[in-house]
Write a structure and sequence with these properties.
Elements (H helix, E strand, L loop, with lengths): L5 H6 L40 H15 L4 H4 L2 H5 L1 H15 L5 H10 L2 E3 L1 H12 L15 H7 L3 E3 L6 E2 L9 E3 L6 E4 L21 E3 L6 E3 L28 E3 L5 E3 L1 E3 L4 E3 L3 E3 L4 E6 L2 E5 L2 E3 L9 E3 L8 E2 L6 E2 L12 E2 L10 E2 L7 E3 L10
Parallel strand pairs: 10-12, 15-16
Antiparallel strand pairs: 1-2, 3-5, 4-5, 6-7, 8-9, 11-14, 13-14, 17-18, 19-21, 20-21
Helix pairs in contact: 2-5, 2-7, 7-8
Length: about 375
């Protein structure tokens, strides 16, 4: 099992996926409570697999509410505008992009008998995520959220020995799922120090205690940092050996080390990680990783959503901006494709799985039981 990747499986980055029958270890009688706001539910029981997606969303959004200057959170308006919007967008991202791994993927493996899910360990993991410091970003577990890596190790336990067919890394008792060219893949031995880990899916193959360096493309030491670099200190953005992620409120310039994020006024543009909107303004995407700071407001059903307006999202009601009318309305179901159909995105498919064919587009909708993760 990829113990150093459990957090990434559960929380990576950003609709409630229907969890399959649990068949899991630990306490399975759990829910995550209401979504009135951040602050924790006080739950002490395990997290049932069917509740996992919502519980992860709530935990991430509790963290984002406390850490609006964290690099990844500051550029995502859904995660900083309101708690309810954050939860909705996190779940929608799981359904549309399959990041992080939707609960149904774990459920299919549990049904196959290739994976064991521990609901009590999931509760410990999620409680730790909700309490992370602002330097411990939930969806980058390989180089920042060190306490969470430890807390999350026991959530998923793989049942497949080396050499067996697999659909994703966590199904393997040891090693990783080599699936560069075909699905299902094969449980394969971990990669040792200095091994190439950047080609295709190999970046998830480093042995415990190692991580894949974006700088060298090889497996290097994953010793946790002792402190976060301050202003002017050398830094690295992304895994490159022992982490050197800038202190809260700073970004890694690369040339000049850690630098303050520059506050930007209304209408001003900035590149993600190099700036932040002044208090009361929110970043809106204008081109790829370029954002413009705007004053945003939420409006209700039937109101115009033209301009700097968001349609309201609460725990009880979700509105979307209709096209081309630009009126806030309740969303209507979209037609999806059966298994075997060509697809471009996961949300194109009835199953939620648009499988990468290891070729150019189009990919293919596959049944949930046949999907290899990541799709």
């Amino acid at each position: 099992m990829r113990t150093t990747w459990v957090l990434r499986t559960l929380f990576v980055a950003l609709p409630v996926a229907a969890g399959a029958p649990c068949g899991c270890g630990g306490n399975t009688d759990s829910g995550t409570g209401g979504l009135a706001g951040a602050g924790g539910s006080g739950e002490t029981t395990g997290v049932a697999l069917a509740d996992l997606d919502r519980a992860r969303a709530v935990a991430f959004c509790e963290w984002a509410a406390r850490c609006p200057l964290a690099l990844e959170a500051s550029a995502w308006v859904p995660f900083v505008f309101s708690f309810d919007r954050c939860v909705y967008e996190f779940e929608r991202h799981m359904a549309n992009e399959a990041r992080p791994m939707p609960g149904w993927v774990i459920g299919e493996a549990v049904n196959r008998g290739t994976l064991t899910y521990d609901s009590d360990a999931a509760r410990a993991c999620i409680d730790t995520v909700a309490a992370l410091t602002c330097l411990e970003v939930p969806f980058y577990g390989d180089f920042t959220a060190w306490p969470t890596d430890v807390a999350c190790i026991g959530v998923l336990q793989g049942n497949l020995p080396l050499g067996e067919p697999c659909h994703f890394d966590d199904e393997c008792e040891g090693g990783w799922c080599q699936s560069d060219d075909a699905c299902p893949g094969t449980c394969s031995p971990d990669l040792g120090p200095d091994s190439d880990c950047m080609s295709k899916s190999n970046e998830r193959a480093c042995a415990p205690g190692l991580q894949c360096s974006w700088g060298t493309g090889t497996c290097v030491s994953a010793d946790p940092p002792t402190s976060a670099p301050g202003a002017g200190t050398a830094c690295s953005y992304g895994p490159s050996g022992p982490a050197a992620i800038c202190d809260y409120g700073l970004f890694c310039d690369g040339t000049d080390g850690c630098q303050p994020m520059t506050p930007v006024g209304e209408g001003g543009q900035f590149v993600v990680n190099h700036g932040m909107c002044q208090q009361g303004l929110f970043p809106v995407t204008v081109y790829e990783s370029t954002y413009e700071c705007r004053q945003l407001t939420e409006v209700g059903e039937g109101a115009s959503c033209a301009g700097n307006v968001l349609c309201a999202i609460t725990a009880d009601l979700v509105l979307v901006c209709s096209s081309p009318d630009e009126i806030c309305v309740e969303p209507t179901p979209t037609q999806t494709l059966p298994a075997g159909s060509p697809c471009s995105y996961d949300h194109d498919c009835e199953s939620g799985a648009c499988q990468n064919n290891y070729t150019t587009l189009p990919h293919t909708c596959v049944a949930r039981s046949d999907a290899c993760y990541p799709f």
